[in-house]
Amino acid sequence: MLSKRFRNLVCLMALAGVLLAGCQSTGEPSAGKDGYFTWVDAQGRVQQSPIYRQPEQTSPAEAYRQEHQAPESEFNLENYPDGVQLERDGYVRPGEPPPYFSWRDADGNIRVSYYQPDTRSAVEKGRIKPPIELTPASIYQQGTQPEPAPTTEGGDPDAFAILDIDEPSGGYFEQWQSHCCESLDTGEVEQWQGSREFGLTIDGQTPVHDFMTGNSPYLLVRLPMAEERKGFILRLRSFAREGVFVPSLALLNADLKPVRIVTDMVADFVPESWHRRGYLEAFVPVFPGHGERWLLLYTRTADTLGQTIIEDKWGPRAIRHVRMGELSVTELSER
Q1: What are the φ and ψ backbone dihedral angles of 283, each rounded to 5 degrees?
Q2: Is 91 helix (H, G, I), strand (E, B) or coil?
Q3: Measured between alpha carbons, how far is residue 38 from residues 24, 33, 49, 175 in Å?
């Protein structure tokens, strides 16, 4: 009898051990589970139940970072995008949610509004004026003589003297200077009219001069005094009407001697609109503080033989170059 009770006691202790072990033991976590516990049901059968843990709340930005996080040693455009392009995109990477701001409505509810960053520059927004881009051109002045061409190997250095041929002396500036400009007529000159735009007309009454680049009508414009303007940007327009006058210009000192020659200007053509004609437009710096006292406008024979090709709503078309035309000049900014 005692032996039977002893056996029952052992069984009860074993069962209690199983229950205790089932409540305390956990297994290896599996996908979506944090472990399990073991227990005995009313019929004495051993059961196992998984343990689920409530997932922590993660912000959208943190979830995106966890999903797309790559090893720090990996260099690619996703982890290290182009800085200029990222700035243009408002510093929002592809796939990321746009930035937002929170606000409270009339009922007291907190709302969120997403927005697209404005990546336009201050110039594009109209807050500041765009910088003036000077017109590409050929510039000649004192001391800009080109390098002499190399002599042909085996040639006679005294060939010009033997053949009684004059060698070309000086560069383009010196050659042009020999044809201009002390003899120019200063009886009727155009006066500078401050910072406002004023027109100039080249017609049959305009004086003509034989320049090194050919015979051409010309206009002389008196520039501001050095005390008034050390330097400024000259905007020059030549309007198209049965052709367009292609200008070259020279800056002369008080004695009408050339200081600087500007030619081969790559001027932009602005098409006509309902309220104005089309025109060539160039931007050239002028320096009264460096002795430039006169603006000389003329054209070259080679330019009068050419044409300007433009493209408008009717397609490409040619505008012929002419010896006469209408121009305007404007002082834009000091330098």
Answers
A1: -125, 120
A2: coil
A3: 8, 15, 7, 108
